[in-house]
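User: Can you predict the 3D structure for this chain?
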Amino acid sequence: LTMSAGPIKQTEKSNEVYQREAKYGAHNYHPLEVALCKGEGAYVWDVDGNKYLDFLSAYSAVSQGHCHPKIVNALVDQAQHLTLTSRAFYSDILGKYEEYITKLFGYDKVLPMNTGVEGGETALKLARKWGYKVKGIPQNEAIVLFAEGNFWGRTLAACSASTDPSCYADYGPFIPGFQIVP
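Assistant: Here is the predicted structure, written as structure tokens:
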């Protein structure tokens, strides 16, 4: 949703962005023709200065808004100490976060993920393992149900669960044991 009065004005700047991505980028999406370059709170701006209300929020990955000062400061502060650690090591921060979030939500354990699709993949593994270990389902016979029209990413498991041809076409064979329900 544009915040500008009247029609959106795009210049050669936008076209250069579209052409460069079309030439050098893999085509796994068909983006809207808006070349974003800046964000603040719920608003984003394109390279031509048009202001928009960001209803997409990176598929909910930035529901908190763009460039919130507390989040930016926390990112910079942490990056100045330690950018990233592998789960092959302990971290002085991870346990504090796990304690905080499990108490906040009333859970026993938490497994932080980087992406939503990573969470979906882990949920699949947990559901199957629970079925085998707790419910006694024979090995390799678990069935996982997915709602028709779902979208949760672009991994092979996510594509295997999709009913959208643009997500699954040309990527088979797919992961067995998935069923779609209307």
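The chain has a mean pLDDT of 91. Residues 21 and 27 are 9 Å apart (CA to CA).
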